[in-house]
Amino acid sequence: MGSQGIGARVRRKEDDRHLHGRGRFVGDMTMPGLREVAFLRSPVAHGRLGAVRKPAGQEHLVFTSADMDGVRPILAKSGIPGFKISDYPALAKDKVRFVGEAVAMCVARTRAEAEDLAESVEIEIEELLAVVDSLAAREPQAPLVHESWGDNLFLETVANGDIDDIVKRAPIVVKREYRTARQCMHPMEGKGVLAYWDHQAGQLVVCSSTQVPHMIRTGLSECLGIEQRLIRVVPPDVGGGFGYKCVLQPEEVCVAWLALTQKRPFRWVEDRREHLTAGANTRQHHYSVTAYADERGRLLALDAEVTIDVGAYSVWPFTAGLEAAQAGGNLPGPYDFRGYRCRTYSVATNKPPFTPYRGVARTGVCFAIELTIDAIARAVGREPAEVREENLVQARDMPYDNVTNKHYDSGNYPESLRRAVRMIDLPGVRARQKRGEPDGQLVGVGFSTFTEQSAHGTKVFAAWGIPLVPGYEQATARLTPDGGLELRAGIHTIGQGLETTLSQVASEILTLPVDQIQVVLGDTALTPYSTGAYASRGMVMAGGAVSRSCEELARRIRHIAAHLMQCEAEEVELRDGKIFGRNASISFAEVGRAWYLRPEQLPDDVDTMGLEVTEGFRPQVDTGAFTYATHAAVVAVDPDTGLTRILDYIIVEDCGRMVNPMIVEGQTFGGTAQGIGTALFEESTYDGAGQPLASTLMDYLLPGPAELPAMRIGHMETPSPYTAHGIKGVGEGGAIAPPGAVVNAINDALRSLGAEIAEIPATPRRVLDAILAAKARPKSEEVARP
Amino acid sequence: MKPVAFDYERAGNLEEAVALLRRADAGAKLVSGGQSLGPMLNLRLVRPELLIDVRRLQSLRRVEESDDRILFGAALTHAEFEDGEVPDPTGGLMRHVAGGIAYRAVRNRGTIGGSLAHADPAADWLSALTAVDAAVQVRSQAGERVICLSDFVLGAFTTALAEDEMIEAVAVPRLSAASAWGYHKICRKAGEFADAIGAVVVDPERRYCRVVMGAVDGPPVLLEEMAEALAAGGAEAGLAKLDAAVEVALPEAAPAARQLHAVAVRRAIGQVYGR
Questions:
Q1: Domain B58-173: CATH class, spelled out
Q2: What is the CA A440 to chain-centroid distance, rounded?
Q3: For each successive 10 residues of chain A (786 residues), what is the average pLDDT?
Q4: A502 and A382, same structural domain?
Q5: Is A668 within a domain?
Q6: Is B1 in contact with A273 (Cβ distance < 8 A)?
Q7: For chain A, how many structural domains are there in total?
Q8: ipTM
Q9: Minimal Cα distance from A771: which residue of B?
Q10: d(CA A536, CA A729)
């Protein structure tokens, strides 16, 4: 293995430019004649759109849906039967359906002037009653987001296992309702897009902050009605994605249309207020769960109803049905049980369109199942960690097909929990709880174990009815005439370090040092098609493709090198960035020179494809490489203020073979920070009319360094049997488990008070209300609570 | 999120600043640190025609000590109090409070005068300086006047300042050596504005005792009966009045909110009496 190959803690190639502030984001770009765009957005959640009056003399600088003749709405159809389709126009047409929906775009020399212009546009809106709560939206008399539907249901799914016998017999029945708040994803860089017409190429060039440049090209082509060859999407540096940038944005359609029709450059950069209002588009679930267990707390069956607040429209390509499909499929988690009933409702409301966020539905389902496991443990009077361990799929049963037919490929889930129990010192925490805290704080400990289907492929996405299904991921590897390596892949780097890790995979095979490897990502003109960076698929899929193309490149290099060194190709070895034959060694540069500049030195039977290889990759079983982890938290709850402090935090994770442990840790810590935000802080609140109440970062709290614990991490490494090098995905995992671990810890702390939290974020107010409610509850009820 | 266009003038001296303020006829805003004004401009919540920059005025950065008080120029930054670059007449209270305002980046630029003029009920200086009975020295072209902090704030973001007046300095009484203070702030995360503030100063030598409940909807609330009980009978006597006092002061508040305010005051009193 090369010293910088798979497994090495190589420093990130990207960091030099980012740490010196030399990255190039959409907001950094300059271009002669560039015009800035500001969107005029709907001030009401639901209404009929009347006249839009442009300011006199400036009509040519303001554009509405009426101007965008021939532009088609974003149309995300799910193939799941019963799915209702929403027309999502780039600029609102006839109706507005959420606060922040773009109604008009205004262009000017500067953003401030564009905003001035937006203020001078008058819009007539006849306000309608808004649908704000997803449960109320399911009621028959609810106002309709899309009148033609007759109800507010995008989709209803049913998994109807036979659990009647278990329901009759099970001695332990635990019922709970859980809620997760609506959230924003808050990448450091919001959305941003700059588009211009390239007269030389005869192409519309769209520089967008996106995770999925190739899909954006496909989507823009559909909406704008022009051929894909006429569009080039070039993603610059992207300051975080998290799912927010994995769908076609209406603003991308608008700005691209401006450049296409006006033939000059335009740019829009999302500001934080737009993000907090128009971008409040994720995480909001409601669960009604009944769990049936035996006297020891062994889970026998789960009966659940999941309602997802999908917002006004279906996003493309992932659709309004993806979250529910993921929720219904993943609620059983890492647990071994065979009785499952689950009904999901994807409900339209007057809120921004639901977009999958790091972890997708799994953060919600993990919260629901993990709190349920602890509730069962309390009901049977046992240590939650023990009950959890007994319920987990055991290592001897791997691979394991679970109750929703997910194929858990490998791993030892109970061992991750046992290691977390040791690292957090569970007996020590229990002893501390017995002693009590001198300042009256209440200490609690909680665990949360999940398994995450990463890099799920063709079959899975096809079953979810997604319009664009990922297949073979491709990558190109090219040896330069002087012996360097160029890698090209259609996936994009959004901060996750792919320039480094893809280089490490190439280095593993070719043994070239990482700094001799140039990586080009995302540009649709330069790279093979890729559905993009989402679903923790980058390392598995693009890593696999780089691996395949480098293997083939290595074969061709060996063949030429053998000729140059007068030995057999089988005798040639790549080692330490050099090429060794039977009695000689040469450099990669000599092979490059032979192919490109001194072809008379080549063997007669040289592969005419040369030193440039494009290969495709798909795991032999592509139903997902299942990453898993256990998180454990110790918290101190102040019973007077409801404030929760995290005293200790443990992560024991297994993402298969680690390409770069430092990046695995960075991804995990970052994801965990976001998960702690979900658990304790982040919430996009609305009033009854659908007005967002959290429109600045004073109202929407993100965790900062002072709120985050010093996380301790332990690694397990079970290679996937199906992927190249045994790699599994790791991008999302960190964000999945924290709400379960933190709130289980809070509930452990509150146990002595008879209080319990079932809604996140577990704000001080919610904790305090729970404590005050428990105090006010008659004694008899408390006794009934285990 | 960019501001509406405005004019900008850098005042050369105090006289010029108040003259500009007068001339602008309510269309101007003073700016020094800009830590609240900046975001409000960007959010277009304020739309002044003119910004008058007073950040570099030396007269707003002065420190004048006398026997019973110290006069602090309005443009001194929170960081200068935090770092002890100016003397503290309150036995450490001001330094403690300054160090807990928002984040260091905010403290580096934000000023004591700006914070008071902004009059966010949840701001630290407002409660802390009310607790020590500080006063603001105010100036306009017409002259100067002094306003007690307890009379200065009329409501959330509303002060007794006339449109053409500016805060020139803050006068903070010296606490005696035997005094003690407590300051407890409850907020959801480090650097956020408070959900509840308790500020207590007990200075028997000066026959002074004040209990302040801050971060309410309006100006900080003086819990006077409690202060009297505290001065007369100590912690137990004072605390006995707490729940009733909070209930009287915040009749509309939810039980959880009331509890937070009570806890903040109780913990501040706990600091005074060493527990």
A1: alpha beta
A2: 39
A3: 85 96 97 98 98 97 96 93 96 97 98 98 98 97 97 96 97 98 98 98 98 98 98 97 97 98 98 97 98 98 98 96 95 98 98 97 98 98 98 98 96 98 98 97 98 90 87 97 98 96 98 97 97 94 98 98 97 97 97 98 96 96 95 98 98 98 98 98 98 96 95 98 96 97 98 97 97 86 42
A4: no
A5: yes
A6: yes
A7: 3
A8: 0.95
A9: B256
A10: 5
Question: What CATH homologous superfamily does B180-272 map to?
Answer: CO dehydrogenase flavoprotein, C-terminal domain (3.30.390.50)
**A652, A715: one domain:** yes
In this predicted structure, what is the pLDDT of residue B29?
96
**A153 belongs to a structural domain:** no
Amino acid, single-letter form, for residue A559? H
**What angle is formed at CA A206 by the lines to CA A203 and CA A212, rounded to 5 degrees?**
120
Instruction: Report the residue of A120, A276, A277, A640 to disrupt the B interface, i.e. the one with the largest count of B CBs within 10 Å.
Output: A640
A112 to B2: CB separation less than 8 angstroms, yes or no: yes
Domain encompassing residue A304: 285-401+408-458+621-784
User: Least CA distance to B264: which residue of chain A?
Assistant: A641
| Nearest chain B Cα distance for residue A703, angstroms | 7
Instruction: Looking at the structure, tell me whether residues A562 and A676 fall in a common domain.
Output: no
Find the residue in A nearest to B192 (Cα): A698
**Would the CB atoms of B263 and A641 count as touching at under 8 Å?**
yes
CATH number at residue A559: 3.30.365.10
Residue A508 contacts residue A1 (beta carbons within 8 Å): yes
- Residue A759 and residue A44: Cα distance in Å, rounded? 27
Does domain B7-53 bear CATH number 3.40.640.10?
no
Test mutation, A36, A113, A117, A768, chain B, max B CBs within 10 A: A768
- HSE-CB of B167 using CA atoms within 13 angstroms: 32
Question: Is position A162 within any domain?
Answer: no
| Closest among A234, A248, A233 to A191, alpha carbons compared | A248
Which pLDDT tens digit goes with each residue over A51-61?
Answer: 999 999 999 99
| In a shared domain, residues A575 and A514 | yes
B203 strand-pairing partners: B208
- Would you list which residues of chain A are within 8 Å, Cβ to Cβ, of chain B? 110-112, 115-116, 271-274, 640-643, 681, 696, 698, 701, 703-704, 706-707, 763-765, 768-769, 772
Q: Tell which of A269, A303, A321 closes a domain.
A: A269
Q: Which of A525, A469, A559, A423 is nearest to A217 (CA)?
A: A525
Q: Which of A238, A269, A300 is the last residue of a domain?
A: A269
Say if residue A369 is in the same domain as residue A448: yes
Give a yes or no: residue A507 inside a domain.
yes
| Rounded Cα gap, residues A292 and A372, in angstroms | 10
**Same domain? A253 vs A304:** no
Asked whether the beta carbons of residue B256 and residue A112 sit closer than 8 angstroms, the reply is: no
Provide the pLDDT for residue A779. Answer: 64
Residue in A closest to B275 by C-alpha: A439
Torsion-angle region of residue A618: left (phi > 0), alpha (psi -120 to 50) or beta?
beta
Residues in chain B, pLDDT under 50: none
Residue of B nearest to A40 (CA): B1
Q: Domain check: are A545 and A655 in the same one?
A: no
Identify the DSSP state of A393: P
Q: A779 and A682, same structural domain?
A: yes
The domain spans of chain B are 7-53, 58-173, 180-272
Binary contact (A272, B1; C-beta < 8 A):
yes
| Residues of chain B by 3-state class (helix, strand, coil), percent to 5 | 40, 25, 35
Residues whose CB is less than 8 angstroms from the CB of residue A535 and which lie 6 or more positions away in sequence, other chains included = A360, A454, A455, A456, A729, A732
Residues of B in contact with A640 (CB under 8 A): 259, 263
- Among chain B, residues having any CB pair with chain A shorter than 8 Å are 1-5, 39, 43-44, 186, 188-193, 195, 255-256, 259-260, 263
A-chain CB neighbours of B186 within 8 Å are 641, 643, 764
A701/B193 CB distance under 8 A? no
